[in-house]
Structure formats: structure tokens, C-alpha cells
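dumping this here before i forget
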Amino acid sequence: MDDVTKNNMEELPFGFRRLPVNDALREQNWKTVEDAIRRAESVSGRDRSGSGARIIRLVRVFAAAACVAALGFGIWWIGARTGRPQYANERTGYGEMKTIVLPDSSVVILNSNSSLRIPEQWTEAAGRQVWLEGEAYFQVQKQPATVRKFVVHTRQVDVEVLGTKFNVNTRRQRAVVSLEEGKVRLSVHGGDSAVLEKRAAMVMRPGQVFVVNATQEPRINDDKAVAARSGWTRHEFHFDSTTLVEVAHLIEDTYGYKMQMADSAVMSRFMISGDVRVQNVEEMARVLEASSGYTVRIKDKTLFVSFH
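structure:
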């Protein structure tokens, strides 16, 4: 785990809302306490040496503790009986990353301008489930096959995991799943029953990238640079004949800045290649200047690109 992960790591803010305990349960708890005290007093009546008094004090302490525990159980039980699942919602702003440790010790690095919804209780029936919008990198803890499966839900596809490292990007009306380790099974949303049956059998192996959008059939391709797709977790970006249009989308999705150029056609024709490491939009602007030969000026949340 790198320094960025360690510095940003947070435990989930899980907690259960306190609910009032009903009168019948409260009366039962106090009756239990009173019965314990009466039994203690009966014992103390037969022992006047002083030990009986100590027994009374101890029983009262333990009875009070039992009452608190019973009340606590009542809070948990009533909370569970409401039937309304509770969720923790993790969000990031532009230019922000957050590392989240899940209840099973799996780690999620949430990219900027993204959100992750996590149930506060993972039940045996439902399994381990999270809902993603935006982009995130997952390091899922391996568990025996008989233990609850891990599923990442997105609008376009569900990713079922046993134990693996992979990246999921759901920006720009498409989903891109990049698998580094392990094995995942994909279930794509939408389409007729025959297509859905075929899609449900899609299984990825390490080194593959899955892509689906609204206009194309899902496809899986081999990618030797699959690990570069999660480079953003280290503030690294991999460009391979990437057009300025694609770079503009990356900047907008990551930092919330738009890119503007006098000749918009150039943005589709001009391509850059290489690996860069930048911490913010200002550093990205300097990289674009050095690689393109253009001048990049930042004003009002916009990168203006022009010739010298």
C-alpha cells in the first residue's frame, strides 16, 4: 500500500441510529434487575459478616450492566425490525481521492468526482455489495468460495468478484472494467433475454479490459498496459495516442475544468503519448504545454489552449 493510500485511509463512519426502547421491554429489564437485587438481599440476610454487603454491591453492578446490555439489544433489535436498510455514502470532490476500508477489510480507492454507497450491514443472504458512480479501484479480500460474494453495482454492469484487484470507470455513459488480478464475472444491464443470457456468462481474466456503452455491444480486449488504467491512484496518467478531446474529458472529470481551443478540429487530430505524474490541474496544464507546443492558460475553471 503506497503513501497516498496510507495518508487518505479512512474507516467507514458506520453507526446505528439510537431508537427508543418500548415500555414493555424496559419494564422487563427493570424487573430482571429487581429480582437480582432481591436474591442478593436474601443471600446477605444469611451472611452478616460483611461479605453479603459486598455481594449486594456486586450484584447491583452486574444487574445494572445486564440492564444496559438488554437495552442495547433492544435498540439493535428495533433498528433491525424497521426493515429499512441503512447506507453509508462516500463522496469525493474534484481533484480529491479517498481510500475506504470496507467491513471485510477490502480496500477501495475512490477517484475524484465519484461516489460509493455501502450498506451498513452486510447480510449473509445479500452478500457483500457496493454501488459505484464515477471511478474506483478495488482490492477485494479473498474469501472461501462458500463465503458471501462481492458485487460492484454500476448503471451499466455488475461486477461479481471473489478476490481480485480491478478498476471500474463509469464516466461518459460507459463502463470500463480493467482486471489486474483474480477473476470477475460480468452481468451487463439492458438488452433482450438472449443477449442478456450471453452477457451473463462473460468472465474476465487478468490483463483484460471490458468496455460497454449505449451504442456498442460489450467487448473484452487484452491490454498489456492494464495496470496503467489504475495509475490515477498514484496521480499517474498514461497517454497512448490520446487525442486532446479525450484529455479534455479526463481533465473535466477529474478536476472540474473545461478545455477550450480556437480551432476545435485540432483537438480531435492532435494526439499525445507518454506517462505523466501530476498532482493538480496546474501541473497537467504545464504537461500539455510541453507536449503539444501550445500555450495553455487557466481562467474561470477553463483551460484555454492557443498557438504561441
